[in-house]
Amino acid sequence: GGIDCHNNSNPTITNNIISKNVAAFGGGIYCYNSSPIITNNIISGNWVDDYGGGICCFNNSNPIIFNTILWNNTIGEIYSSHWAGMPCSLLVAYTNVDFSKCYADSPSAIIWGPGNINVNPFFVDDDETGGFDFHLTDSSLCIDAGAESVYVAIWDTTIYAPTTDIDDSTRPQGGGWDMGAYEFTDSSYIPPDTTDTLLYILYPGWNLIGGLVETIPATYLTDSPGVFSDVFGYDRELSSYYIADSLYYRRGYWIFAIDTVSIYMP
Fold first, then answer.
1. Which phi and psi angles does 101 have, rounded to 5°?
2. Exposure string (b/e) for 132-155, b if CB count within 10 Å is 16 or more?
3. 84-131: per-residue pLDDT in tens?
4. CA distance 151 to 188
């Protein structure tokens, strides 16, 4: 749904928010004969028809999941399959995940390393009707619960956590590395002072965004300072792009920004 790791791609996936994806298998990350290193990510609110709402592994995939938060994915958080005689083994360390929602078909396995917890991460706002703000609040037990590194015996190697977070803030802040994509700072994160609903955060360059449950006029985006283009949709029948007047549910759109821009619904 969010990221498809296929046929020995073996990427390192770091400092990402992977959320609100829908798929048959692997709502957040799908691994097929691929062994990614998954560090300091937030994988939340993804949905699948069958297996692995957060992460799903098939066909000799052996990923490492480290300093990551898996929360509120449906169905299940992690699934390790034994398919066609090719088992998978996942190492999970210093990660916040509901152990009761993680499954492995024998002889596939989930190897539970050190430092794992199962708690509500207490995001600032992970409600789909709100701002989708996955910063940690000061009550989160994910703060300082991560680690600088983890030793992987089956690879005889050490995996290190990133030294900055998704906001480019230095890691660690306080007593140690935090789980997830954001490092909690002593000053605490303060949401924007607004009663409006946050729709999108655009970053410099082209942004691929999805339509929300409610139809949204394109002018909400194009009239914002820092936005440099119209909203473009793609017509599959005509194989061409078009300028969109509105954004519709579960359709994708492109827009170009020259600054980081927060888009609110008036």
1. -110, 25
2. bbbbbbeebebbbbbbeebebeee
3. 778 999 999 999 999 999 999 989 999 999 999 999 999 987 665 456
4. 31
pLDDT at 186: 63
Residue among 191, 195, 207, 204 nearest 247 (CA): 207
pLDDT in tens, 142-178: 999 999 999 998 778 899 999 999 999 999 998 899 9
Q: Which of 27-36, 64-73, 101-110, 235-244 has the lowest mean pLDDT?
A: 235-244
Q: Give the predicted TM-score (pTM) of the model.
A: 0.70
Strands 157-160 and 149-152: antiparallel
CA 131-133-134 angle, 5° bins: 150
The predicted model gives 68-86 an average pLDDT of: 89
* Most confident listed range (50-54, 64-68, 206-210, 227-231): 64-68
**Closest Cα to residue 1, out of 61, 35, 37, 45?**
45
DSSP string, the chain: --EEEESS---EEES-EEES-EEEE-SSEEEES---EEES-EEES-EEEEE-SSEEEESS---EEES-EEES-BT-SEEE--BTTB--EEEEES-B--GGGEEE-TT-EEEE-TT-B-S---EEE--TTTT-EEEEPTT-TTTT-S-SEEEETTTTEEEE--SB-TT--BS-BTTBPPSSS----TT-----S-SSEEEEEE-SEEEEEE--SS-EETHHHHTSTTB-S--EEEETTTTEEEE-SEE-TT-EEEEEESS-EEEEE-
